[in-house]
From TrEMBL:
Binding residues for Mg(2+): 226, 250, 254
Species, as recorded: Lichenibacterium ramalinae
UniProt protein name: 3-isopropylmalate dehydrogenase
Its EC number(s): 1.1.1.85
Family annotation (SMART domains): Iso_dh
Catalytic activity: (2R,3S)-3-isopropylmalate + NAD(+) = 4-methyl-2-oxopentanoate + CO2 + NADH
Cofactor descriptive note: Binds 1 Mg(2+) or Mn(2+) ion per subunit.
Entry annotated with the keyword Kinase: no
Main location: cytoplasm
Length: 367
């Protein structure tokens, strides 16, 4: 029986609450599935600052490098608002993404039939929605230099961030989008702001050239990012695969999340380049949502984004597509049976706890 190594980084706020549901499902899969899991645990975010003075320790980075996959809950919270910028909780997550080379962030937004009324949009706009946002994750304004606050000496300061993209970074993320589109509807929308940004001009040119050279059978459309935001809430079902940069992808995926009913529904996979020999990819799986300080500690967070992230790990890191499908069907089943955490409940509808939602998924999995 193959053994897969998995590093769990629950993080802060609701991170540990939703990760507890992953542990239940992993225990079930270990006992009932085709593979064994060797699970290790580590710290990232505010909890790592408290324990080690840094948002991720070198020892935990080494564990992440060695694992077949990393599962992360969420980082951040008001407790660490005052820490120096360089060691804020989010810096731990950014280091994991950058140092592991996780440039491809897949954020699927699927509106489950049972949740079509939970969206803030009308049912007919979101029912059957199935979008895949492919977000570039290791470049752009998140990492460009210089990034600093300069004292201008006249009582004024200047905050500087730098948006940078090289051709190879755009090509490799566009390739991921085109390849995935071939397995779906064959349609890609690429988004930037070439009307105001040079990196947008290069993005547009590079994606167009790659398309013409290697993917002529895929239908490619370009949308300026502001217009795309508008169209995502106007008529979201026109979209299939969307490829965009780090910052636009961050914003557009929170928008897409609300189409599905809640930020608590959106899973993600962050993947590196495949090793040419072993074909192994470094990978981290995490919900799109954050640590939700407003509800942390109450046991009411929605664990489905976290469990959906585990399903993505089964599919992309462990070659367990059948088990991934089965877990995703169990999530859909729990929703169809009417289990609702508070974020996806309609006014007056009864709600369940994080743990009860995990149990409902587990029961559907075992059925
Ligand atoms: P958030 O995603 O934590 O919360 C936004 C809203 O969505 C809140 O009202 C929250 O209660 C709700 N929500 C989020 N996840 C939910 C879930 N699973 N179930 C039910 N409701 C849920 O965003 P924020 O409040 O802007 O950020 C809080 C902290 O999280 C910040 O420190 C931020 O940097 C961090 N953050 C971390 C990640 C990550 O670790 N990947 C992602 C986003 C934000
Ligand atoms: C996300 C988060 C992160 C991001 C933060 C916490 C660094 O918002 O994963 O969407 O901006 O990428
Ligand atoms: Mn975000």
């Amino acid at each position: 029986m193959p053994t897969h190594t998995l590093l769990l980084l629950p993080g802060d706020g609701i991170g540990p609450e939703v990760m507890a549901e992953v542990e239940k499902v992993l225990a079930w899969l270990g006992a009932n599935g085709p593979a064994a899991f060797e699970v290790t645990r580590g710290l990232v975010g505010g909890c790592a600052i408290d324990a080690h003075g840094v948002p991720v320790s070198d020892a935990d980075m080494a564990k992440a490098e060695a694992a077949d996959a990393v599962l992360l809950g969420a980082v951040g919270g008001p407790k660490w608002d005052g820490v120096p910028y360089e060691i804020r909780p989010e810096a731990g997550l950014l280091r994991l993404r950058k140092d592991l080379g996780l440039f491809a962030n897949l954020r699927p937004a699927i509106c489950h039939a049972a949740l079509a009324d939970a969206s803030s949009l009308k049912r007919e706009l979101v029912e059957g929605l199935d979008i895949l946002i492919v977000r570039e994750l290791t470049g752009g304004v998140y990492f460009g230099e210089p990034k600093q606050i300069v004292d201008l000496g006249n009582g004024q300061k200047r905050g500087i961030d730098t948006q940078v993209y090289d051709t190879y970074e755009i090509e490799r993320i566009a390739r991921v989008a085109f390849e995935l589109a071939r397995l779906r509807s064959g349609r890609v929308v690429s988004s930037e702001k070439r009307n105001v940004m040079m990196s947008g001009v290069l993005w547009h040119q590079t994606v167009s050239a790659l398309h013409a050279r290697h993917y002529p059978e895929v239908q490619l459309r370009h949308e300026l990012a502001d217009a795309l935001g508008m169209k995502l809430v106007q008529a979201p079902k026109q979209f299939d695969v969307i490829v965009t940069d780090n910052l636009f992808g961050d914003m557009l995926s929170d928008v897409a999340a609300m189409l599905t009913g809640s930020l608590g529904m959106l899973p993600s996979a962050s993947l590196g380049e495949a090793d040419p020999v072993t074909k192994r990819r470094k990978a981290l799986y995490e919900p799109v949502h954050g640590s939700a300080p407003d509800i942390a500690g109450r046991g009411i967070a929605n664990p489905l984004a976290m469990l959906g992230s585990l399903a993505m790990a089964l599919r992309y890191s462990f070659d367990m597509g059948a088990e991934a499908d089965r877990l995703e069907r169990a999530i859909a089943q729990a929703l169809a049976e009417g289990h609702r955490t508070a974020d996806i409940a309609r006014p007056g509808e009864p709600t369940v706890s994080t743990s009860a939602m995990g149990d409902a998924v587990l029961a559907a999995l075992a059925a």
